[in-house]
Amino acid sequence: MVSSNLNLVTDIRSNQLSNELTDDEVKLITMFSEEIYVEKGQYVIKEGKYNQAFYLVKTGSLNVLLEETVTKQPITIREAGDFVGVLKSTDSPINSVIAREPSTLVRINVDKIFSTNRYQPLQIKLLSKLVKQLTTDVRINQNQMKNYYALGTLTIFLLCILSIYTLSLGALQGFVTDFGVSTYVDIGLIICFAWIMYKLIKKSHYPLKTFGVTMDNWKANLKEATILTSPILLFFLFLKWALITFIPAFTEIPLFNPTAALADIGFSFGMFTVLVVVYIVFSIVQEFIARAGLQSALCLYLPDSKGKLATAIILSNLLFAMAHSHIGTLFALVAFVPGIYWGWLFARQNSLIGVCFSHMLIGIWVLFILGFTQFIG
Known about the structure:
58% of the residues lie in helices and 11% in strands.
C-alpha cells in the first residue's frame, strides 16, 4: 500500500534518519518512498539480494543479521523510529533483515537519488547515516563474538575443573572419611575456584560492577536482604522445633544448640568465635564464586533468551553444589537449595552485598545457633 506524501513526510520526520535533513530534502525523499507492510518472518533484505534501499520502521520491529554471525541469531533489532539500509557504495556487513513481528515500513528507493549528482548533498548525508549505523552494528557484533569467546573460555575452565575434581573424588572422599572433617578439602577447593573466577573476571575486561562487586545502594540492599531472609530464619526455627517435638529420637536435643558445630572437638567460646569468623569470610568467597564468577558470567555470555537468567542461576548452583559432593549427596543438596534463593536475590540486586549478608545470616543461624550440623553432618 502507498501513503500520501503528507503522511510520508510525517513518517520520515518521526524517524532518526531525518536528523540533519532539511525540509526540502525530506520532501524530496517522499517522492521516492512508499509505505509497505510485512508479515512476521518475511524478508525485508535477503542474503545475496542487495537492491539499494532504505527501510524506515514505522510500527513493529526487524531482526538484523550480519555475515559474521555464525549462529544466525539477530545481532540487533530495529524498532519504530529506526532505519536499516543497503547501498552498493558501502561494504555492508548486513546479511539479512527479517520482520520479527507484523510491521509497517517506509521503503525509500535510493537508486533514483544516487543516479544523478543533482542530489549530492543528500547522498552524502544518507551515506554518513548508513556508515554510522553499520559501524554500530559491527561493534555490537564484535562484542557478541567476544562474549561467545568468553563463554568458550569459561566452559573450558569449568570442564577442566570438573574433570580434575571427578578423577580425584575418590581420594577426597577417602580423606574426609579418614580424618572425619572436610574443612581442609573445602578450603582448598574454594581457594582454587576463587582464583579461577577472579582470573576470568579480570580477563573479561568488564568493570567489576558488572559482576556485582560494588558498594552501590549497599544500605538498601542490606535492608532488603534482612527483610527477605527473615522468613527463612523463622522457617528453620519452626523446622527444628518440629523435629525435636514430634520425632522421639530428637526430643533430647535443645532448640538452640551452639555446641553442635564443635561436637567432635569440644565446645569453647574462643573456638566457636573463630569458626563463625571463618564462616563469614568463606561465605563471602563462596558468593563471589557462585554469583560474581559463575552466575554473572553465564548471564553475560549465554545467548539471549527468556530463560537465560533461570538457566544461569540453576547451572551456577549445580556447579557449586557439585563441589560439595565429596562430603555427601545430602550436603550437596543442602548447598544447592539455598543457592537458588541467593541466585534470585543477586539477580534482583546485582550486588554481592545483600546476598553475602543473607548467606551469613542463614549460615550462622542454622549451623551455629540452631545446630543443624547434627542432622546433615
